[in-house]
Amino acid sequence: MVTIADVAATAGVSISTVSYVMSGKRTISQDTRDRVEAAITKLGYRPHASARSLASRSTRVIGLQAPLRSGVDVHVIMEIVSGVVAEARANRYDILLLTSDDAEGLSRAAGGSMVDALMVLDVESEDPRLATLQELGTPSVLIGLPDGANDLVCVDFDFEAAGRLAAARLAELGHTRVALFGAPAEVLDRHTSYAERLNRGFLAGCAEHGITGSVHPCPSSADAVGVVDDILTQTPEISGVLFHNEAALPHVAAHIAARSPHCDVIALSPLHLVRDVPGLTDTIEVPAIEIGTVATRAILALLAGESVDRMQLLPPRLFGPTGS
Protein backbone atom coordinates (compact mmCIF):
# COMPACT_ATOMS: atom_id res chain seq x y z
CA MET A 1 0.00 0.00 0.00
CA VAL A 2 1.31 3.44 -0.95
CA THR A 3 1.79 5.72 2.05
CA ILE A 4 2.25 9.43 2.55
CA ALA A 5 5.94 8.70 3.25
CA ASP A 6 6.25 7.20 -0.27
CA VAL A 7 4.77 10.36 -1.76
CA ALA A 8 7.16 12.53 0.24
CA ALA A 9 10.18 10.49 -0.88
CA THR A 10 9.13 10.62 -4.56
CA ALA A 11 8.50 14.36 -4.44
CA GLY A 12 11.68 15.04 -2.47
CA VAL A 13 9.85 16.81 0.38
CA SER A 14 8.95 16.12 3.99
CA ILE A 15 5.86 14.21 5.10
CA SER A 16 4.49 17.38 6.72
CA THR A 17 4.78 19.24 3.38
CA VAL A 18 2.69 16.55 1.68
CA SER A 19 0.15 16.86 4.48
CA TYR A 20 0.04 20.65 4.07
CA VAL A 21 -0.49 20.34 0.31
CA MET A 22 -3.43 17.99 0.87
CA SER A 23 -4.99 19.95 3.72
CA GLY A 24 -4.45 23.49 2.52
CA LYS A 25 -3.40 24.44 6.05
CA ARG A 26 -0.20 26.18 4.91
CA THR A 27 0.94 28.20 1.89
CA ILE A 28 3.15 26.00 -0.28
CA SER A 29 5.07 27.20 -3.35
CA GLN A 30 3.54 26.24 -6.68
CA ASP A 31 6.65 24.29 -7.70
CA THR A 32 6.50 22.18 -4.53
CA ARG A 33 2.76 21.73 -4.84
CA ASP A 34 3.16 20.54 -8.44
CA ARG A 35 5.84 18.00 -7.42
CA VAL A 36 3.67 16.63 -4.61
CA GLU A 37 0.59 16.38 -6.81
CA ALA A 38 2.61 14.70 -9.55
CA ALA A 39 3.94 12.16 -7.03
CA ILE A 40 0.41 11.48 -5.77
CA THR A 41 -0.76 10.85 -9.33
CA LYS A 42 2.25 8.72 -10.26
CA LEU A 43 1.95 6.49 -7.19
CA GLY A 44 -1.84 6.36 -7.14
CA TYR A 45 -1.85 7.51 -3.55
CA ARG A 46 -5.26 7.77 -1.94
CA PRO A 47 -5.08 10.14 1.05
CA HIS A 48 -6.59 8.98 4.31
CA ALA A 49 -10.16 10.16 4.83
CA SER A 50 -9.17 12.45 7.68
CA ALA A 51 -6.42 14.11 5.65
CA ARG A 52 -8.74 14.69 2.68
CA SER A 53 -11.32 16.34 4.85
CA LEU A 54 -9.00 18.62 6.84
CA ALA A 55 -9.31 21.47 4.33
CA SER A 56 -13.10 21.49 4.48
CA ARG A 57 -13.94 20.84 8.11
CA SER A 58 -12.71 21.36 11.61
CA THR A 59 -14.02 19.55 14.65
CA ARG A 60 -12.00 21.77 17.02
CA VAL A 61 -11.19 18.55 18.89
CA ILE A 62 -7.72 17.17 19.63
CA GLY A 63 -7.39 13.45 20.29
CA LEU A 64 -5.17 12.72 23.30
CA GLN A 65 -3.99 9.12 23.69
CA ALA A 66 -3.04 8.74 27.34
CA PRO A 67 -3.02 5.01 28.15
CA LEU A 68 -2.74 4.13 31.83
CA ARG A 69 -0.30 1.25 31.54
CA SER A 70 1.24 -0.72 34.37
CA GLY A 71 3.92 1.23 36.22
CA VAL A 72 2.84 4.64 34.92
CA ASP A 73 2.50 7.37 37.55
CA VAL A 74 -1.10 8.50 37.17
CA HIS A 75 -0.58 11.74 39.07
CA VAL A 76 2.12 12.96 36.68
CA ILE A 77 0.16 11.84 33.63
CA MET A 78 -2.88 13.76 34.84
CA GLU A 79 -0.77 16.87 35.42
CA ILE A 80 0.37 16.70 31.81
CA VAL A 81 -3.23 16.19 30.73
CA SER A 82 -4.33 19.20 32.79
CA GLY A 83 -1.77 21.34 30.96
CA VAL A 84 -3.14 20.08 27.65
CA VAL A 85 -6.75 20.69 28.63
CA ALA A 86 -6.16 24.21 29.97
CA GLU A 87 -4.27 25.37 26.88
CA ALA A 88 -6.79 23.73 24.54
CA ARG A 89 -9.71 25.35 26.33
CA ALA A 90 -8.00 28.76 26.18
CA ASN A 91 -7.93 28.34 22.39
CA ARG A 92 -11.50 27.02 22.12
CA TYR A 93 -10.53 23.40 21.47
CA ASP A 94 -11.88 20.32 23.20
CA ILE A 95 -9.94 17.18 24.11
CA LEU A 96 -11.06 13.66 23.24
CA LEU A 97 -9.33 11.26 25.63
CA LEU A 98 -8.26 8.02 23.96
CA THR A 99 -7.51 5.30 26.49
CA SER A 100 -6.31 2.75 23.95
CA ASP A 101 -2.57 2.15 23.75
CA ASP A 102 -2.26 1.05 20.13
CA ALA A 103 -2.26 2.45 16.60
CA GLU A 104 -5.79 1.21 15.96
CA GLY A 105 -7.18 3.71 18.45
CA LEU A 106 -5.41 6.55 16.66
CA SER A 107 -6.70 5.37 13.28
CA ARG A 108 -10.28 5.20 14.55
CA ALA A 109 -10.15 8.75 15.87
CA ALA A 110 -8.52 10.22 12.77
CA GLY A 111 -10.25 8.00 10.21
CA GLY A 112 -13.66 8.68 11.70
CA SER A 113 -13.14 12.43 11.34
CA MET A 114 -13.54 12.74 15.11
CA VAL A 115 -10.46 14.95 15.65
CA ASP A 116 -8.38 17.58 13.90
CA ALA A 117 -5.10 16.42 15.44
CA LEU A 118 -3.54 13.75 17.62
CA MET A 119 -1.34 13.87 20.70
CA VAL A 120 0.32 10.73 22.10
CA LEU A 121 1.60 10.09 25.64
CA ASP A 122 3.69 7.26 27.14
CA VAL A 123 5.96 6.97 24.11
CA GLU A 124 8.35 4.05 23.73
CA SER A 125 11.85 4.33 22.25
CA GLU A 126 10.77 2.15 19.33
CA ASP A 127 7.08 2.99 19.34
CA PRO A 128 4.91 0.87 17.00
CA ARG A 129 2.45 3.77 16.63
CA LEU A 130 4.88 5.96 14.69
CA ALA A 131 4.28 4.35 11.30
CA THR A 132 0.52 4.84 11.61
CA LEU A 133 0.89 8.48 12.63
CA GLN A 134 3.18 9.14 9.67
CA GLU A 135 0.81 7.39 7.30
CA LEU A 136 -2.30 9.17 8.57
CA GLY A 137 -0.93 12.61 7.78
CA THR A 138 -2.98 14.04 10.64
CA PRO A 139 -1.18 16.84 12.55
CA SER A 140 0.42 15.01 15.47
CA VAL A 141 2.59 15.70 18.51
CA LEU A 142 4.36 13.10 20.63
CA ILE A 143 4.98 13.75 24.31
CA GLY A 144 8.18 11.76 24.34
CA LEU A 145 11.24 11.30 22.16
CA PRO A 146 11.26 7.97 20.30
CA ASP A 147 13.72 6.73 17.71
CA GLY A 148 12.63 7.21 14.11
CA ALA A 149 10.15 10.04 14.69
CA ASN A 150 11.26 11.67 11.42
CA ASP A 151 8.92 14.61 10.73
CA LEU A 152 6.71 14.09 13.77
CA VAL A 153 6.91 16.84 16.40
CA CYS A 154 8.21 15.67 19.79
CA VAL A 155 7.77 17.62 23.04
CA ASP A 156 9.08 16.45 26.39
CA PHE A 157 11.20 17.20 29.43
CA ASP A 158 14.90 16.67 28.75
CA PHE A 159 15.33 13.57 30.90
CA GLU A 160 18.80 12.84 29.55
CA ALA A 161 20.00 16.31 30.57
CA ALA A 162 18.34 15.82 33.97
CA GLY A 163 20.34 12.63 34.51
CA ARG A 164 23.55 14.45 33.63
CA LEU A 165 22.66 17.34 35.94
CA ALA A 166 22.02 14.98 38.86
CA ALA A 167 25.32 13.18 38.31
CA ALA A 168 27.17 16.50 38.18
CA ARG A 169 25.51 17.67 41.39
CA LEU A 170 26.32 14.45 43.24
CA ALA A 171 29.93 14.68 42.07
CA GLU A 172 30.03 18.30 43.25
CA LEU A 173 28.84 17.13 46.68
CA GLY A 174 31.88 14.85 46.84
CA HIS A 175 30.32 11.45 46.10
CA THR A 176 32.26 8.82 44.16
CA ARG A 177 29.68 5.98 44.21
CA VAL A 178 26.10 6.89 43.35
CA ALA A 179 22.87 5.24 42.22
CA LEU A 180 19.72 6.05 40.29
CA PHE A 181 16.53 4.44 41.56
CA GLY A 182 13.94 5.00 38.88
CA ALA A 183 11.01 3.60 36.96
CA PRO A 184 9.49 0.17 37.70
CA ALA A 185 10.82 -2.83 35.80
CA GLU A 186 7.74 -3.01 33.58
CA VAL A 187 8.31 0.54 32.34
CA LEU A 188 11.90 -0.31 31.42
CA ASP A 189 10.80 -3.58 29.82
CA ARG A 190 8.56 -1.55 27.47
CA HIS A 191 11.60 0.61 26.58
CA THR A 192 9.69 3.71 27.57
CA SER A 193 11.49 6.71 26.13
CA TYR A 194 11.79 8.91 29.22
CA ALA A 195 13.19 6.14 31.44
CA GLU A 196 15.83 5.06 28.95
CA ARG A 197 16.93 8.65 28.35
CA LEU A 198 17.20 9.34 32.09
CA ASN A 199 19.29 6.22 32.66
CA ARG A 200 21.53 7.05 29.71
CA GLY A 201 22.08 10.62 30.84
CA PHE A 202 22.82 9.65 34.44
CA LEU A 203 25.42 7.01 33.53
CA ALA A 204 27.01 9.32 30.96
CA GLY A 205 27.17 12.10 33.54
CA CYS A 206 28.82 9.79 36.06
CA ALA A 207 31.45 8.81 33.49
CA GLU A 208 32.08 12.46 32.61
CA HIS A 209 32.74 13.30 36.27
CA GLY A 210 34.82 10.23 37.05
CA ILE A 211 32.40 8.67 39.51
CA THR A 212 30.78 5.23 39.55
CA GLY A 213 27.05 5.05 38.96
CA SER A 214 24.46 2.29 38.78
CA VAL A 215 20.79 2.17 37.76
CA HIS A 216 18.07 0.19 39.54
CA PRO A 217 14.35 -0.22 38.74
CA CYS A 218 12.03 0.48 41.63
CA PRO A 219 8.37 -0.43 42.29
CA SER A 220 5.91 2.46 42.61
CA SER A 221 4.91 1.63 46.17
CA ALA A 222 6.24 1.24 49.71
CA ASP A 223 7.87 -1.97 48.46
CA ALA A 224 10.54 0.30 46.99
CA VAL A 225 12.03 0.59 50.48
CA GLY A 226 13.08 -3.06 50.39
CA VAL A 227 14.67 -2.69 46.95
CA VAL A 228 16.65 0.40 48.01
CA ASP A 229 17.65 -1.20 51.29
CA ASP A 230 18.98 -4.30 49.52
CA ILE A 231 21.09 -2.24 47.10
CA LEU A 232 22.51 -0.01 49.82
CA THR A 233 23.34 -3.05 51.93
CA GLN A 234 25.05 -4.82 49.02
CA THR A 235 26.94 -1.67 48.02
CA PRO A 236 27.55 0.38 51.18
CA GLU A 237 29.87 2.71 49.27
CA ILE A 238 26.82 4.36 47.66
CA SER A 239 26.49 7.74 49.33
CA GLY A 240 24.50 9.69 46.74
CA VAL A 241 21.14 8.87 45.14
CA LEU A 242 18.98 10.20 42.32
CA PHE A 243 15.39 9.06 42.88
CA HIS A 244 12.76 9.26 40.14
CA ASN A 245 9.62 7.45 41.18
CA GLU A 246 7.05 9.86 42.52
CA ALA A 247 4.77 7.28 44.14
CA ALA A 248 7.61 5.66 46.09
CA LEU A 249 9.56 8.84 46.89
CA PRO A 250 8.06 9.66 50.34
CA HIS A 251 8.67 6.12 51.62
CA VAL A 252 12.22 5.87 50.29
CA ALA A 253 13.43 9.37 51.21
CA ALA A 254 12.33 8.96 54.83
CA HIS A 255 13.93 5.50 55.02
CA ILE A 256 17.29 6.65 53.60
CA ALA A 257 17.32 9.66 55.94
CA ALA A 258 16.86 7.34 58.93
CA ARG A 259 19.18 4.60 57.66
CA SER A 260 21.99 6.67 56.12
CA PRO A 261 21.78 10.27 57.36
CA HIS A 262 24.91 11.26 55.40
CA CYS A 263 23.50 10.00 52.08
CA ASP A 264 22.47 12.82 49.72
CA VAL A 265 19.19 12.22 47.87
CA ILE A 266 18.16 14.22 44.79
CA ALA A 267 14.52 13.85 43.78
CA LEU A 268 13.35 14.14 40.16
CA SER A 269 9.72 15.15 40.52
CA PRO A 270 7.09 17.86 40.10
CA LEU A 271 7.88 20.37 42.82
CA HIS A 272 4.60 20.22 44.69
CA LEU A 273 5.07 16.50 45.33
CA VAL A 274 8.28 17.03 47.34
CA ARG A 275 7.18 19.81 49.69
CA ASP A 276 6.40 17.45 52.56
CA VAL A 277 9.06 14.85 51.80
CA PRO A 278 11.85 14.72 54.42
CA GLY A 279 15.48 13.89 53.83
CA LEU A 280 16.01 15.43 50.38
CA THR A 281 19.17 17.32 49.44
CA ASP A 282 17.89 18.84 46.17
CA THR A 283 15.08 18.51 43.66
CA ILE A 284 15.18 18.56 39.86
CA GLU A 285 11.76 19.68 38.70
CA VAL A 286 9.66 17.66 36.26
CA PRO A 287 7.45 20.47 34.85
CA ALA A 288 4.52 18.19 34.03
CA ILE A 289 1.87 20.89 33.46
CA GLU A 290 4.26 22.89 31.29
CA ILE A 291 4.95 19.82 29.16
CA GLY A 292 1.24 19.58 28.38
CA THR A 293 1.01 23.31 27.68
CA VAL A 294 3.98 23.36 25.29
CA ALA A 295 2.77 20.23 23.48
CA THR A 296 -0.66 21.80 22.95
CA ARG A 297 0.84 25.03 21.65
CA ALA A 298 2.85 22.97 19.17
CA ILE A 299 -0.22 21.14 17.92
CA LEU A 300 -2.19 24.40 17.62
CA ALA A 301 0.66 25.84 15.57
CA LEU A 302 0.56 22.79 13.28
CA LEU A 303 -3.18 23.26 12.83
CA ALA A 304 -2.58 26.90 11.94
CA GLY A 305 -0.07 25.88 9.28
CA GLU A 306 2.86 27.41 11.12
CA SER A 307 6.42 26.10 11.17
CA VAL A 308 7.14 24.12 14.36
CA ASP A 309 10.45 22.86 15.74
CA ARG A 310 10.48 19.09 15.44
CA MET A 311 12.10 18.60 18.84
CA GLN A 312 11.20 20.68 21.88
CA LEU A 313 12.81 19.57 25.15
CA LEU A 314 12.22 21.49 28.37
CA PRO A 315 15.53 21.95 30.23
CA PRO A 316 16.01 20.66 33.80
CA ARG A 317 16.27 23.05 36.75
CA LEU A 318 17.79 22.31 40.14
CA PHE A 319 15.99 23.50 43.29
CA GLY A 320 16.49 23.15 47.02
CA PRO A 321 15.06 20.14 48.90
CA THR A 322 11.47 21.46 49.02
CA GLY A 323 11.46 23.06 45.61
CA SER A 324 12.58 26.45 46.87
Describe the 3D structure:
With 324 residues, this protein is α/β, with parallel strands linked by helices. The protein has three domains: 1-47, Orthogonal Bundle (434 Repressor (Amino-terminal Domain)), CATH 1.10.260.40; 56-157 and 289-317, Response regulator (Rossmann fold); 159-287, Response regulator (Rossmann fold, 3-Layer(aba) Sandwich), CATH 3.40.50. It has helices spanning 4-11, 15-23, 30-43, 49-53, 74-90, 103-111, 130-136, 159-172, 185-189, 193-208, 224-234, 249-259, 288-303, and strands spanning 61-65, 94-98, 117-120, 140-143, 153-157, 177-181, 212-216, 240-243, 264-269, 282-285, 311-314, 318-319. A six-stranded parallel β-sheet has the order 2-1-3-4-5-11, with helices on both faces. It has a six-stranded mixed β-sheet with strand order 7-6-8-9-10-12, with helices on both faces. Strand 3 (117-120), helix 7 (130-136) and strand 4 (140-143) form a beta-alpha-beta unit. The protein is elongated and about 70 Å long. The termini are far apart. The relative contact order is 0.13. Mean pLDDT is 89; it is low at 49-56.
Q: Nutshell version of this structure?
A:
By secondary structure, the protein is an alpha/beta fold. It contains 13 helices and twelve strands. Mean pLDDT is 89; it is low at 49-56.
Q: What is the string of helix and strand elements?
A: HHHHEHEHEHEEHEHHEHEHEEHEE
Read across the widest sheet, the strand sequence of neighbours is: 2-1-3-4-5-11
Task: Give the biggest sheet.
Answer: 6 strands, parallel
Looking at the structure, the CATH topology of the largest domain is: Rossmann fold
CATH architecture of the largest domain: 3-Layer(aba) Sandwich
